[in-house]
């Protein structure tokens, strides 16, 4: 996620780049404290909506639903096995 953010840097505003970077770092820090998993996943979903609306001028509903499903699956797997 963080590598993809750097590769798309030239196409996005600086504040959106920062939001992508911070949300990726939050998700990467979930091993320090499980709250970072929830915050990171919510931040990544929010940033994905912003990326779609600002960079592509539309949000693909199927992509958003798949992202929500994968995020929910990751959260459930973590809470089940942690």
Architecture overview:
Helix 2 (14-28) runs antiparallel to helix 3. By secondary structure, this protein is mainly alpha-helical. Helix content is 77%, strand content 0%. The two termini are 23 Å apart. It has helices at residues 2-7, 14-28, 35-55, 61-81. It has one domain. It is built from four helices and no strands.
Q: Between the first and last Cα atoms, what is the distance in angstroms?
A: 23 Å
Rg, alpha carbons: 13 Å
Task: Estimate the strand proportion.
Answer: under 5%
Elements, N to C (H/E): HHHH
> What can be said about the biggest beta sheet?
none
Tell me the count of domains: 1
- What is the number of E strands? 0
Keywords: Membrane, Transmembrane, Transmembrane helix
Transmembrane segments: 12-29, 35-52, 64-81
């Amino acid at each position: 996620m963080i590598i993809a953010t750097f590769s798309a840097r030239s196409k996005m505003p600086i504040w959106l780049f920062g939001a992508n970077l911070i949300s990726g770092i939050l998700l990467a820090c979930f091993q320090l404290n499980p709250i970072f998993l929830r915050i990171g996943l919510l931040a990544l979903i929010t940033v994905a909506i912003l990326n779609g609306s600002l960079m592509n001028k539309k949000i693909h509903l199927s992509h958003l639903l798949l992202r929500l499903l994968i995020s929910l699956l990751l959260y459930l797997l973590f809470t089940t096995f942690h």
